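Sat 14:20. Reprocessing the chain from the morning session after the first attempt stalled halfway. Input below, unchanged.
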Amino acid sequence: MPLIRILRFGVLLSCGWLALAALLWQHHGFLWAALAIIIWVALLRLFQQAVLAHAQALAKKKD
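Finished this time. Tokens:
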């Protein structure tokens, strides 16, 4: 899968998590929204590590 497609997919998922947090805040309060944001940050960190590993693998493949 091309790296740019992975990055676009990550941005799309991030927007979804932020929309979820906004809806949770509106309907269920701050604590549920904060939980969604914490989960989003953890997933974003994992995503960034995966993208970095993929980019490094592509760089090694070119050599």
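The radius of gyration is 15 Å.
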